Amino acid sequence: MCWSATADLVAGTGIAVIGAAAVASTRRARDLPLAALPLLLGAHQIIESAVWRSDGGTGPATVAWAVIALPLLAVWVPLGVYCAARHRVRTRLLVPLAAGAVTAVFLGYALASRPVTAEVRGHTLGYVLDLPHPQWLIAGYLLATVGSLLLSGDRRLVFLGVLVAIGAAVCAALWRLEFISTWCAFAAVCSVVLFDWARRRPRAVTGDRPGPVSGG
């Protein structure tokens, strides 16, 4: 995230608390992976505060941050959307889910075979990892994360997808070298939308019956 270790720690703690509340509000087991996303992203920001305090480098905090940001989120988000979705929209969600799985394999291999380094760049952190075909990996990553939200058929998740898509564009334009760090921080803040989503989800599994698609 931008600014400092303290900013990451405070923001991460607040987001994690909201994530815990989202999990506590969840009424169906299949909604839990997506409801837990703010909890994961809050913990992610707390880990980045440790990266700040170690002045970057290649230590355990840097590796843990990269594992969550790259392969884990590439699978977690589309899988969470798939689990929560109505059966009739799941077929189209197989595309971002497959993209996430393939992207995660390549990112996981890169992290296992090559060092990842964090660099303090003013009020931002940049992460350096030598990736093969980075344009394709970024495309697959965004299709998995943003694409799954936009294709979810749930208006609140679509709204979240629009927010994080706008955030991706802004972060890429303003912080090209620090894109992944700044965008993950932006996505963490936006993920608090999932608390409202989890709180409003119906208790009964009514979404699998024919009827108009709604945001509930």
Mean pLDDT: 88
Q: Report the span from N to C terminus.
A: 31 Å
**Helix content range of the residues, please?**
55-70%
Biggest sheet descriptor? 2 strands, antiparallel
Coarse shape: globular
Q: How many beta-strand runs? A: 2
Count of DSSP-assigned helices: 9
Spatial order of the strands in the main sheet?
Answer: 1-2
Beta-strand content bin: under 5%
In short:
The protein is mainly alpha-helical and 216 residues long.
Q: Overview of this structure, please?
A:
Helix content is 69%, strand content 5%. By secondary structure, the chain is mainly alpha-helical. A two-stranded antiparallel sheet has the order 1-2. β1 and β2 form a beta hairpin.
Question: Top keywords for this entry?
Answer:
single chain; 216 residues; mainly alpha; 9 helices; disordered C terminus
How would you summarize the topology of this molecule?
Blueprint: H1 5-25, H2 32-35, H3 37-53, H4 60-84, H5 90-113, E1 117-121, E2 124-128, H6 134-150, H7 155-174, H8 179-190, H9 193-200
Antiparallel strand pairs: 1-2
